[in-house]
Design goal:
It is a single chain. This protein is α+β, with helices and mostly antiparallel strands and 64 residues long. The protein has one domain. It is 19% helix and 27% strand. It has one helix and four strands, in the order ββββα. It has a four-stranded antiparallel sheet. Strand 2 and strand 3 form a beta hairpin. It is globular, with a radius of gyration of 13 Å. The N and C termini lie far apart (37 Å). The mean pLDDT is 82. InterPro entries: DUF397. This is DUF397 domain-containing protein. Pfam families: DUF397.
Length: 64
């Protein structure tokens, strides 16, 4: 499985501690999420529906 990775536009420079990259296999296929500072550290693979659900949960998350 080869993802085509792209870094989030919200990821900052070298000192940014919260960098993320997203990858897709093909339109409508699995979506990968990984730490851009540790690209060989593995990734989370989600279906498009799971990814949409994750984004929804993150948008509605409250900070404590």
């Amino acid at each position: 499985m080869t993802f085509h990775w792209r870094k989030s536009s919200h990821s900052g420079g070298v000192d940014d501690k919260q960098c993320v990259e997203l990858g897709r296999l093909a339109p409508g296929a699995a979506i990968g999420v990984r730490d851009s500072k540790d690209p060989d550290g593995g990734n989370l693979t989600l279906t498009p529906a799971q990814f949409t659900n994750l984004l929804s949960q993150l948008k509605h998350r409250t900070t404590r």
